[in-house]
Amino acid sequence: SSAQLFRLRHLQLGLELRPEARELAGCLVLELCALRPAPRALVLDAHPALRLHSAAFRRVPVAETPCAFAFPTPGTGPQPPPLPAFPEMPGAEPACCPLAFRLDPFTDYGSSLTVTLPPELQAHQPFQVILRYTSTDAPAIWWLDPELTYGNAKPFVFTQGHSVCNRSFFPCFDTPAVKCTYSAVVKAPLGVQVLMSATQSTFVEEEGVYHFHMEHPVPAYLVALVAGDLKPADIGPRSRVWAEPCLLPTATNKLSGAVEQWLSAAERLYGPYMWGRYDIVFLPPSFPIVAMENPCLTFIISSILESDEFLVIDVIHEVAHSWFGNAVTNATWEEMWLSEGLATYAQRRITTETYGAAFTCLETAFRLDALHRQMRLLGEDSPVSKLQVKLEPGVNPSHLMNLFTYEKGYCFVYYLSQLCGDPQHFDEFLRAYVEKYKFTSVVAQDLLDSFLSFFPELKEQSVDCRAGLEFERWLNATGPPLAEPDLSQGSSLTRPVEALFQLWTAEPLDQAAALASAIDISKWRTFQTALFLDRLLDGSPLPQEVVMSLSKCYSSLLDSMNAEIRIRWLQIVVRNYYYPDLHRVRRFLESQMSRMYTIPLYEDLCTGALKSFALEVFYQTQGRLHPNLRRTIQQILSQGLGPSTEPSAEPVSVGADRDSDSPALLLGDEAPSSAISLRDVNVSA
């Protein structure tokens, strides 16, 4: 896009949801100023899924501000043609004049939309570009048939813009460097509740028309919409949950009072919450990631509701994004750690304030364990292990969603906090950093310069140049973090995990198993049990007699625990070809529709002699999976079957030949992701 040539003041969306056609009709109004006189064209990020119908130009009087048309009133102003039938175009004469436009290929995740502008355009003169379009089969827009929801009654749709998908939702400057306010008018079928990452201002029930506005500037990827059979319940003075009716009691019970506690803790650390409301919507299992920090309205996959500790951490992480990521945003996807690393640090400060240091250290140990697992898989010289990753033109930034962004970024921020000697003092710095840069986008140098200015004594000591720990090396060296936090405060929780793991790898087995069976893991925290199972996974394949003893000791108990625990045990079953527990794998996959609980198992099944079992289960369950997930699993099942061979549609029996296909390692839009990246990242954007 040509974002560097313009200032985007405001965008307005008029949307009509057409679930039967799986189509969205849109009318987009961009208010802009050219930064230099007579720009020849406006270039926007778009996508082949967008079908452009028209482009028009309208001058805006200098005195008119975005607020003057942020809330369109039905029946005022010139009317657009009937695609869609609303919102009514804001403002008065002069009328719009048509513009020429063309859509050109750019890369596999988007196109460029070039709109020719009038030649006499002055610098800094406000003008509007009005685009009318429809969007079909867009990567950002997920249409669900009723049977893919919990209620099985009404269609459902949600959008997911991170990192560069929203160009298929509406033409835009699809970069985190550009922020603007926005407003929206959405028409939906009657009986369907519409929510957006904004404040709802009005709703005309008999017409199914919703009005929204976002008063603070946000990047394009944080514009989000969800619509379906959703009901609300208040859980605090500024928070409510939205969920399908059958899920609402569970969601309410799990979060009532807690979100306000987390928000208040975050405010004590980093300053006032800026977004008004903090609501949460629970989405069906087809939601492709765990959670997304859309302003005012966090999106969370409903599957996580059964795993209490993961739910707590994921919501607190999204709360932290309200300051780090949403208010202060990384200006480029090459420095995504500025959002994820800082949000992870803030998340752990909030959990320490709320639940104590021991729990925080346990969760940190669990994640750092996963980071080193991913490092062993990728190799220490992998370029994606840098905090400042260099993206070649056309490379999808979504491929950078990995643990280094979160955990190596966290370790660097933690290192900075240790340099000043006092976490509370570092909290004061972060509070000042947010106040200085809120509603803007920054680069790493902004953070580091602010840090050294806030702590002049550290600047005098040249802490940025300490041998082996140079700031530049933190940013650009491959490999593990240069320093890791002291987690000794969590030893009361991590030491039993290590002791139990050592027992199961000790000799003689019968004596070790007897000692291990005396340890009651049913009283452990979820993160303790998950860490223990991850250690066993790291050691797989295990001796068959060890797996037999593990199954005898734990299989029935683990089968009664939450999905985060069960999937880890079932991966141990699969990686060790333990056939007596294979029926549990089948039952788990028959009950799961979520990417996070299916892909890891299918990838493990397809790396060895159980591929035919995977095919059998898949063909029995594929009708309950979202088409995107179904396609990903088909790609996994096709590995090793030859370049033109698709999985057979006929069920087959267990006993396929073992293959050695290596899984993809990064999270992308089309390629299947590795079990390790999905299981360990547990992606909360």
Please provide the count of β strands. 22
**Largest sheet entry:** 8 strands, mixed
CATH class of the largest domain, named Mainly Beta
Query: What topology, given as strand order, has the largest sheet?
Result: 5-4-8-2-1-11-14-13
- Number of structurally distinct domains: 4
Secondary-structure-derived class? alpha+beta
How many helices? 20
How much of the sequence is in beta strands?
15-25%
Backbone shape: globular
Average pLDDT figure:
89
C-alpha end-to-end distance: 24 Å
Helix content: 25-40%
CATH level 4 superfamily of the largest domain: tricorn interacting facor f3 domain
CATH architecture annotation of the largest domain: Sandwich
Cofactor: Zn(2+)
Region (Disordered): 640-669
Domain Peptidase M1 leukotriene A4 hydrolase/aminopeptidase C-terminal: 492-637
Protein name: Aminopeptidase RNPEPL1
Task: Set down the secondary structure blueprint.
Elements: E1 6-18, E2 23-34, E3 41-46, E4 50-59, E5 97-98, E6 101-107, E7 110-116, E8 126-136, E9 141-144, E10 156-159, E11 180-187, E12 193-196, E13 199-204, E14 209-218, E15 225-228, E16 231-236, E17 239-243, H1 248-255, H2 258-270, E18 279-283, E19 291-292, E20 297-301, H3 308-321, E21 328-330, H4 337-355, H5 357-378, H6 403-419, H7 423-437, E22 440-442, H8 444-454, H9 456-460, H10 471-476, H11 491-504, H12 509-517, H13 526-539, H14 544-559, H15 563-575, H16 582-591, H17 595-605, H18 611-621, H19 627-638, H20 675-681
Parallel strand pairs: 1-11, 17-18, 18-20, 21-22
Antiparallel strand pairs: 1-2, 2-8, 3-7, 4-5, 4-8, 6-7, 9-10, 10-15, 11-14, 12-15, 13-14, 16-17, 19-20
Helix pairs in contact: 2-3, 2-4, 3-4, 4-5, 4-6, 5-6, 5-11, 5-13, 5-20, 11-13, 13-15, 14-15, 15-16, 15-17, 17-19, 17-20
